[in-house]
UniProtKB/TrEMBL annotation:
GO terms for cellular component: plasma membrane. It comes from Gambusia affinis. Keywords: Signal. This is Ig-like domain-containing protein. Gene3D superfamilies: Immunoglobulins (2.60.40.10). Residues 35-134, 139-227 form the Ig-like domain.
Length: 282
């Protein structure tokens, strides 16, 4: 007798759990791009074969945003959400859907949403379910800048930043030589958080640099042209050259040419020409 009673009790519990209302949102998390018109799905199954009345509510966090009444179709909407949210409800027998629709989502819509279904005489079981909405924002076009002076032997930083993006974008720098051929970074170069640090730069550092800002929505880029300037001539030495005699001038100019300082060579050539003309006149 006791065994029969126990078996009956278990069967009653199983039957009650199976027969009670069950509300379900298929996923725990939903991600959409900013500006999308979205749907958060919600389904339910009642223990009643054909409920005459159902009250469906959706909340965002602790705030109730919309209530839908079946079968009248009447709704109550929070004033802040008016015109942007609606419930797409369809009840067929004891089951149905109660989807939440939101238009033009923004980052302000990031929240945990709850679908709650209340049917008179069917209050047991799982009457609500939740899901998290994350609104993704593509990176804005990054801004590229050079920090420091691009001259021989200096250290400079190339910076890259997008003012918006959710999730936060990652950054990557690529380098190309003056002939637009891709090249690897110098071993001393660091690329972290959108900052490319270049150390002890030389003319080989000159070229094109492209920064790519990327998250799961899309990627955008900006670019910089780096032209490394040769070391400036000392003004005092230049004045001395112009005003006085240039010892071993031919050998000195050959050395300058080997260094690739064409501008200096042209200047010295002009000076020598003037001095030779002056000597001829004397």
């Amino acid at each position: 007798m006791e065994r029969r009673t126990s078996t009956l009790a278990v069967l009653c519990v199983v039957w009650s759990a199976a027969a009670a209302i069950q509300v379900d949102i298929p996923q725990d998390q939903y991600e959409f791009a900013r500006g999308d018109n979205i749907t958060l799905p919600c389904t339910f199954k009642s223990a009643l074969p054909s409920p005459k009345l159902a009250v469906i509510t959706w909340s965002a966090g602790e705030a109730l945003i919309i209530t839908y009444y079946h079968p009248s179709g009447d709704i109550d909407v929070d004033i802040k959400s008016e015109g942007r949210v609606s419930v797409d409800a369809n009840i067929n027998g004891g089951s149905g859907k109660a989807d939440l629709k939101v238009s033009s989502v923004t980052s302000a819509d990031n929240n945990k949403y709850k679908c709650h279904v209340q049917i008179p005489k069917d209050l047991g079981g799982k009457v609500a379910d939740t899901a998290t909405l994350t609104v993704l924002v593509a990176p804005s076009k990054p801004i590229c800048k050079i920090q420091g002076t691009a001259s021989y032997g200096q250290n400079i930083n190339l910076t890259c930043v997008s003012e918006e993006g959710s999730p936060s974008p990652t950054y990557k720098w690529n380098s190309y030589d003056v002939l637009n051929n891709p090249r690897a970074h110098d071993p001393r170069t660091t690329d972290k958080g959108g900052i490319l640090s270049l150390y002890n730069i030389t003319k080989e550092t000159s070229g094109f640099y492209i920064c790519t800002s990327q998250n799961k929505i899309r990627s955008v880029s900006c670019n910089l042209t780096v032209s490394v300037l040769p070391p400036s001539m000392n003004i005092g030495s230049t004045a001395g050259i112009i005003g006085g005699v240039i010892p071993q001038s031919d050998r000195w100019m050959d050395a300058v040419k080997r260094l690739g300082l064409d501008v200096c060579f042209c200047l010295l050539s002009t000076i020598m020409g003037v001095k030779q003309q002056h000597a001829a006149l004397v």
